[in-house]
Amino acid sequence: MASTSGLQRRRGTGHAPLSNDPGDEEVDSTWRLSGQRSDAAIERLSGTGSRNRIDPGSGHQVAYDPRDLVDAGEERTCPHLTLMEEVLLLGLKDAQGYLSFWNDKLSYTLRGCILMELALRGRIGIAKGAHLRREDVSDRIIQLHNAKLTGEPLLDETLRHIQQAPPTSIAEWVDLLSGDTWNMMRLSLQLKQVRERLAKGLVEKGVLRTEKRNFLLFDMPTHPIVDMSAKDAVRRRVYALTLSQNVHGPSLYKDEKQDRAVALPVTRALCMLCSAFSADVFENAMRHLSTQVREQADEHVSHLIEAFGQWPMAPHTPGGGLPPRSSVDTAQARSAKAPFLKQRKPRMGASSTDLVLAMRTEYEHGGVESAFEVIAGVLQVLARMDSLV
């Protein structure tokens, strides 16, 4: 009976001792005292950062890793949709709910979006080292800065790959995540079924729904759009950078349903615009415009990809681009192979000068240089893909 009473005492933290043995009272009080200090003690002994806490309802110990919990601060500064989801949403047919069968560039571009999204969230950057600075920006090595999970399955899977893989450049990572490699030992790094997984994520967020449609002899899942306001918001960001000549960062994501102060709004919108153009879904948002306007918009976005797909970004603009010319690292970072584009006034859309000024403000208020460097490297990879296809 004594053993049974001891077991019951250990299952509840607030029960009085069930026996009259003073030794049991001493053990019980010692156990309660150690339970109050269990968090710090276990964290100090384990050295892994994990914690144990007593569930007041059941009395059981619950182990968890605080690094895996969702950061409320990050949730307020990140938009409802990721870059990949926005690009996929632009490519989806509204009523039919499927992508074009002839689009062979979307999958590759989505892998680049994953790297840019991780950079915007502060998870990855460029490895430090003077010898790396002499390489083209797309050939520089990606380094893990923060292994905390994001809650997005594709982003978290990519984080685990980067954490476990040897040092790899930006261009190589886009190839590996796409499965475009002859190295059989690294085929496991490929992200599979990216489009379908993104669509399922949008279903969970209430933007899409799942249906079955018959294509010839097969039934295939489709994802018609339920919340058209989400796609309209993405379109408005496209129009803000291509049809308007004024750049106003706070208005780009003010349509968010939740109270979010999205970080780096201009930088994020530029990444989405360039990715949509590279994935051949940009034209879906411009179909209602005249042919002449669409051609001018294509020329404008193509120029933006070339201007911001180098390091420093848009060096032809006043101040030396982003980051400013006064930076010592920036002077060493520019590759001799990087093209120097002449400054020109666009016939439509926000100029690269105005974009650099807005992005410089974001850079000075919490931006990380190596994160912008990753974005420049991915844009350079996408620009090369456009020139080859």
TrEMBL record:
It comes from Malassezia caprae. This is Vacuolar protein sorting-associated protein 74. Belongs to the GOLPH3/VPS74 family. InterPro entries: GPP34-like, GPP34-like_sf. Its main location: Golgi. The keyword Isomerase does not apply. It comes from the Eukaryota. The lineage of its organism: Eukaryota, Fungi, Dikarya, Basidiomycota, Ustilaginomycotina. It is found in: Golgi apparatus membrane. It holds the Pfam family GPP34. It is a peripheral membrane protein. GO terms for molecular function: phosphatidylinositol-4-phosphate binding.
